[in-house]
Amino acid sequence: LAKTTQPISMDSYEGQEVNITCSHNNIATNDYITWYQQFPSQGPRFIIQGYKTKVTNEVASLFIPADRKSSTLSLPRVSLSDTAVYYCLVGGNNAGNMLTFGGGTRLMVKP
Amino acid sequence: GAGVSQSPRYKVAKRGQDVALRCDPISGHVSLFWYQQALGQGPEFLTYFQNEAQLDKSGLPSDRFFAERPEGSVSTLKIQRTQQEDSAVYLCASSLAQGTNYGYTFGSGTRLTVV
Q1: At the N or C end, where does chain B have fewer CB atoms within 10 A?
Q2: Hey, are the CB atoms on B106 and A44 less than 8 Å from each other?
Q3: Could you count the other beta carbons within 10 Å of the beta carbon of residue B44?
Q4: Which chain A positions have a beta carbon within 8 Å of B96's beta carbon?
């Protein structure tokens, strides 16, 4: 399974755009890139998933360069409620594919 | 139900006691996973079910850990003779077994404290 590397923590302010970059140098051809968000005392919550180029949904955007060795989660205009741990995962997206979490990035949004 | 439900939310066990943690997945979800999350760490895989079949239990840390899903819906994670290192949050996740770009839905977890 591809290993991921992401910053341990990041600080931001309300209204700013936040970009969290994840490195996954050993990503396999059939691996997808998925991001989860976790608030204290809750389970992780799926945010976005992509394979290449750019994916956008109502919550975030995911940018994936052509070599797919990294990806960037972009959160537009963060608010205090976006303070959470964000996990980058790579792997197959077939049912039964185990999710392998790293340490995640602790995002602190300040007023 | 609308989401994955886990019970109890909190469990305090004396060392050596047996515990049982319950997971009610989303109705119709075929895949079910158990994860263990230590304080300040990411979740770590324990075991995986497809319907009632336990297809992967490679993450179970010892033979004191046992999981079952006899009818392919509710699952129970049992820990025998609990030890202090078992203290963690135990998360359950479920997903549909079809389509792409789906995500796993996690429950809020059971926080186990062994004293």
Answers
A1: N
A2: yes
A3: 15
A4: 95
Determine the residue among B50, B90, B95 to mutate to test chain A binding: the one whose Cβ has the most chain A Cβ atoms within 10 Å.
Answer: B95
| pLDDT tens-digit map of A51-85 | 999 999 999 999 999 999 999 999 999 999 999 99
Nearest C-alpha neighbor of A99 from the set B86, B47, B98, B26? B47
Looking at residue A34, what DSSP letter applies? E
CA nearest to B54 within chain A = A96
Residue ranges of B 19-48 with Cβ closer than 8 A to chain A: 30-31, 33, 35, 41-45, 48
Alpha helices in chain B, H assignment, sequence order: none
A87 touches chain B (CB under 8 A): yes
| C-alpha torsion angle, residues B87, B82, A87, B49 (rounded to 10) | -160
Which DSSP string do the residues of A51-71 spell out, in sequence order? SSEEEE-SS-EEEE-TT-SEE
Digitized pLDDT (tens) for each residue of chain B, 115 residues in all: 579 999 999 999 999 999 999 999 999 898 999 999 999 999 999 999 999 999 999 999 999 999 999 999 999 999 999 999 999 999 999 988 654 446 789 999 999 999 9
Q: Which amino acid, one-letter code, is at A63? A: F
Q: How many CA atoms lie within 13 A of B10 on its CB side?
A: 2
